[in-house]
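so i finally got all the pieces together for this one. its two components total, 436 residues if u count the protein bits. some of the lines might not be protein, just check the labels. i wanna see the whole assembly predicted at once instead of chain by chain like last time, that was a mess tbh
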Amino acid sequence: MRASILKQSKFLIVSVQGSMTDADLVQLREELGAGVRRHRSTGVIVDVTMLDVMDSFAVRTLRGIAQMVKLLGAECIVVGIQPDVAFSMVQLGLTLEGTTTALDLEDGLSALRERIGAEGNPL
Amino acid sequence: MNPSGSSPSSEVSEQELVRRKDFLEFGDADVSNLAEINELAQRYADAVIEDFYKHLLSFEETRSFFRDPHVLQRVKNAQQEYFLRLTQGKYDLAYVENRLGIGAIHERIDLPIKSYLGMYNFYLRAVSNRLSEAYQDQPERGRVTFLSLMKLTFLDMGLAIDTYIYSRERTIREQQEAIQELPTPVLPFREGMLLVPIIGLIDTQRARLLTEQLLGAVRDNRAKVVVMDITGVQAIDSKVANHMVQTVEAARLMGAIVIVAGVSPEIAQTMVTLGIDLGRMTTVGDLQSGIERAEEILGYTVTRTRSKTSSGQ
């Protein structure tokens, strides 16, 4: 199953589905990179609410996405990590260092707006 | 209380009984030896029981269990049945059940194990004397028969002690459950702020429960800052401390900051000694500082609307 990338003004919202294979994740990274360039986005939110398992490959890819987005000049926030997912990630030592996280889409959007400005233009 | 609830009968299977008998080397020869003295046992039963209770009643510690003459008579009858059962063969699961039941009764009246074992010892000695008398002409036969009886008595003792241990273990388990159920409230303190006071002893199990509650509450209350107050915690070990660090990290993944407040000097010392990485953990000395820090993060400012002097009036 593929992730959906929604464009909302200057932001891109990525909704990761429950059953993502490794190949799906890599494809998502490529599509997102292209998307940020094409839409000249200033912020990306990756919503992982639907993920109930996160293995080391998924976490590495997620961190890679966040770093890539940053290099493309946009902010990236990972939202919707569920309690048990969060705890098992930490137990595995996968803490997404250097990546901004927020509780859910709403919090993520307001965090982005705070950083970038309501219109999606860099402050 | 359910009478069978205190017996671990369900834990002694056919297999386990065979294992126990094997370990005591209790075999068919022993069964026939015991069957041989059944008649003898019946003849001496009353006298042995009388001696037995005379002995029990001569000690203050055991006398207190038999103050009521009716109880005493009933117990004597039960005891006689118990002793006779030793030589009646059929040492099967029903036998085990019977022995466990008797052990459970003694456990329930809080008869100390030392007295219980002492009673077995007295019985063996009494029977030993009578066996030597009866087998005066065949001392070897008497000795072998006594050994058979001793094996069976030790099987009984093993079962009896099991009931004691089982009951204690159940108490421990119940207490552990009670501790786990100790409410650890997660209190919404301000919008976006949770207060989690932790009191008492934290073990690994409780720490895990706490983590679940805390992370769940972060999601349900949409909290941004959690103040975890550990003023009421006397000590933590390395496992629990690591668990706490992990909880803080997990909360961060969910977009919440955890402030640990009320770290006592002892706990601080422990954490330093254990070399726990506190780099990403925000800790403050007391709850007040914790709340102030949380308010600062959330952008709250608290102002007094009345001066100190007028508020007292």
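The two ends of chain B are 58 Å apart (CA to CA).
Residues 187 and 230 of chain B are 14 Å apart (CA to CA).
anyway lmk what u think
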